[in-house]
Structures are given as structure tokens and as C-alpha cells.
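Homework help board

Subject: predicted structure for assignment chain

Our instructor gave us this sequence and asked us to write out the predicted structure in C-alpha cell form, then describe one feature. I got the C-alpha cells but I'm not sure how to describe them. Can anyone check?
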Amino acid sequence: MSIDLSKCKNIHMVGIGGISMSGLAQILNKEGFNVTGCDMKLSKITDKLEKDGITVYPRHDAFHVLKADLVVHTAAVKSDNTEILKAKELGIPVIDRAELLGLLMKNYSYGIAVSGCHGKTTTTSMLAITMQQAELDPTVLLGGEIDDIGGNVRLGNSPYFLTEACEYYDSFLKFFPYMAIVLNIDSDHLDYFKDINHIKESFLKFTLLVPQNGYIIACNDNEHVRDILKKVNNRNIITYGIDRPADYTAQDIVFNSNGHPEFHLYYKGKNLGKFKLSIPGKHNVYNALATIAASIAMGINIDIVKKAIKDFRGTHRRFEYKGNLNGISVIDDYAHHPTEIKATLKAALNYPHNRILCVFQPHTFSRTKALLYEFSQAFDCADHVIVTDIYAAREKDNGIVNSKMLVDLLRERGIEAEYLKTFEEVVNSLKKNATKGDIIMTMGAGDVYKVGEMYLNSCDSERTKQKIS
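My C-alpha cell output:
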């Protein structure tokens, strides 16, 4: 069914409290649509939507869709949802979040979609700040939050629309990008994709959505990206990398005392000067190169790009500094794939520390099962690993895989590891074992970030009690 968004005055969103859905709701609201939504979990996100004049219901009810011209739902909403069933009964069009995002992108001349299995949020955020400082006034939709735009969405008034492009369930194939950025291709989401070849096929289809006058920005260091580029014709392709020849390359990379890299940028062999980052890790040099290549393709002055990249301080839950108590730093990161874990822990090695105590919460049973061996190889840079229960997300526990299996494999590699079931147990272990100069790093896409907050708060409480006594 072809949807004409201009004819859909009233739009109802099922699962409006999600990070992406809430951003889409704000964009629709700004463009003059009458938006309503529902979510079983009210939060600061839904509070903000209501302050913007969007009605949010705290439960699902068929009544909510009676006046809707279009119903949008998240991937987590099941087909037997009462609102979805009622909408279909009434003949109201029902689409998912990705299709709505694609429809919105069609309204902008320059849709910029940042894809890849790792680094999407950081690169999109870095590019958003660069475009903002260049006064391109983009509309931006992120999968995370940055202080520079006050959250995960920026409402602009220009032909530029910047968003992340997720490959899961082939969501990004519903987009209309003028510029497609491909950061990397890796094995993930194997509950949907059959194998790496299936994933590569999807990324190839994504790049072919770019019109012939558009741009593909791609990492030439990733072998799977190189494979798909061989099959892309009649497109403007710009490559970047560190270890292999590319249009844009970073050379002479060094790290300062905080683990922040700086490098000389070269374009086809010509030195364009020194660039400095204010976030750690070699993986963020790749994200910076993607940002640089995309920005220059848009005509942004290189001095503006250089300043914006240095000004960028990262997104929430990406190597996010949470606090320091008694000389122990607490850092949180969203890393939930072996490649991301390796990169983040390697970045932590350049951060001032004595030991790295890593608290890891596996995300989904399917990912843990499919990549169990790869996970066991990902923690070599940590001095001690605590593994909590698997965060189920959209799945149910079928008993095939559990966190103790990962701990056993880590111990076989000689890594000091333990399984602790509750966050309270984790915090007690950290309080007992962490010493001055250590880094406590919480990692995972679930709610493991709470561990760091609980640790900092519990230590504060104990210090208060000691003062009182």
C-alpha cells in the first residue's frame, strides 16, 4: 500500500516512548500533524512529548485509533495488539517505524543515512554537530542522546535530514538516502539474517538506493564493505580508512593522556592538517573520518569540520564518564557486540588506570548464542570481568544459552571472570574489590548502566553514614 503522508492529518503511534519513535513524533508534530501515541512505560521522554502537546496514553486501547488516518508501530509491537487489530478492521493504514522514517525522508532533498553494525550513533552525532556549526540547520534523528542538540532529535528548517539507518529486519531498505554512509559490516542480528552474506546483500541493496547524483561514503578497511563496493556502479563513492589506501586516510595517530587520538588527515596523498578528538579510541578515528568525508562532500569548510570534531564530547552511553569516587572512575558504554567490546576496552587501555573491572550484560539470547565464542575472545583487555544475566529485550529464555557459559569460556582463556545474578551482588563485589586507580566499566545495551549509578550512590550513602556516626 502506497502511503501519501500529506493526506494523513491524524497519526497514532503505538510504542511512542521509544527513543526513535519519540523523535519521529516530535518531527511530525513540528510539521503540523496531529500526533497521539501510547506506551506501557511512561518516562521523561513521554513527559516531554506531552509538554509539546502530544497526547500519550499509558495503555493500549482500540479507542485510541478511531480518529487516526495512519497508525505507526515499533518492531516490538505484536500483530495481535488491540490497536493494530482495530486499525486494520477499520481499514486504517498500518506501517512500522522504519517506513514512516522513509516517508519523512522523502520530504527532504538531502537525506543522509548513517549505516553500519557499529558506530552509527556516534558518527551521526558527530556529523550533526558539524552540520549545525556549518549552519546547514539539519533535522536530525539519533538512536542516542547528545547534549549539543538537547536529546535525540533536532528540528531544523532546511533540505537536510540526517538519521541513523539500522539494518535489522532490513529497516534501512525503506529509506530514501541521497547520501549513504557505510561504517562497517559485521555478523550481527543473526535471529533475522541467515549469515554474513545475507547481511552484505542487504547493505548492497541499501547503497543502491542512492541516486546517481548522490554519494556513498564507505570504510575501505572493512573487507565486507569492499566486497559490496565492487558491485556498486554509477554512484559517487568516497572511501576512507587507516590501514588500507583510500580517498581519506588518518596517519600518524597518537593518543594523549586521556586516550583521545589526534592524527594527520590525508586526501589522496595530500596532507590536510592535524585533527584532534575529544573522545577516546581508534574506532572513533574511523567515525571521524566518515564524518569528515561526508562533510566535505556537502561542501562544509574543512576548518569548520576540524573544530566541530574537536568540540564533540560524545553521546550518552558511549564511553560516558559517570563519576569518580576515591580515585575509582566509573565509565558506561553501550557496547553489546564482540567487535564493539574489543574496541571500547582497547580505548580504555589509553585512559589513565590501574585495572579495568568490566561489568558486562549480554543482550538477547540469540546474539549471545550465535556469537558466544566471539564474546569469549573480546575481553582480553579487561583485568576482571563480571557477567550478569542476559538482557532478554524482545526474546524469551529458551534455556539454550546463559551467562555462566560465557564465564566458563573466559576462565578457560585465563581471564578472571565471575557470574553474578543481581545488580546488588555486582555492586557489593565492586565495593569490595575496586581500588584507587581502577576503572569500573559497565557494558551492554540493556540496563547495566544502573550498576555504575548504584555503585556511586551506595558509596555516597556510606560516606554520609560514616560522617554522621
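Reply (TA_rk): Your C-alpha cells look well-formed. For the description, you could write something like this. Residues 87 and 177 are 30 Å apart (CA to CA). That's the kind of observation they're looking for.
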